[in-house]
Amino acid sequence: MANGPERWEEIRSTRSGELVLAIGWPSAEQGGPHFADLIPLLGSRYPVWRIAGQSGPTDWDTSIEKYAGPWVQEIRDSVSTVRAVLAHGLGGILAAVISEMVGQWQGYFPEVLLIDPELVDTDLVYDEFLSLLPDVPATAAGSADAADAVGAEVKRLRERGAELTAASGGDAAALAADLYALLRDAGARIRTPEPGVPAAENALARAESRLSELAIADRADVIRLWDRGTALCSSSRERGLSRTRAALLLPEAALVGREITFDIDHEGILKDAAVARTVYELIGA
Question: What is the pTM of this model?
Fold first, then answer.
């Protein structure tokens, strides 16, 4: 988008001054669904902005409102109003905060539609930690000795990470900090083959960004904010609100203002015509 915001991508352009925002969790966007399947099914007359780009460097103690600030400021600078906010997975946390902040200056709250929304939990943090560990064959670059050394270190990290997760008492934010410290302490022993680049330092910066984002999200008062939202849920028991309820040990909890369930698995929910039709109707498109 020429001369447009840095942290949003316009994926549907129309003449309307009202925006629809599509929000996934920023660090998970690369290789993610990007709403690429859902948006063409909507047929909406409103322009759609998809979240793209990071908030910027963040401290571990940053509030979710401060973290969301750069995205909100770019919306305000566009002199547009926000009609609806669509969110997927962990993006529902950021979407709820952005919706509240937008509502404070535009005078009314956008419609908030949460597609298989999730909260941060310790299992998710541990999964993120595992995704940050190096691939042993690639890291070793063909050296059998190096492969053995890195493989042993990765095994140790997996095991120690699992121990920290089990001992976390459900505190996802504290676990994220502990797992980052584990990676930082091991950084000198793990390398990735990027000639001319301080690869270990870059990998640690990436790990800190992704794990600190989860810590920030975990501290958000999302249940209060979700009370205005509508959740569009798949039937997958291990994802979305089902996962969140299991993590909170609250199987009957009403975590959102309204819940609509579709007989479809998590992987297909952004591709489903019935989901798209429901979104279309709810945003008054």
Answer: 0.86
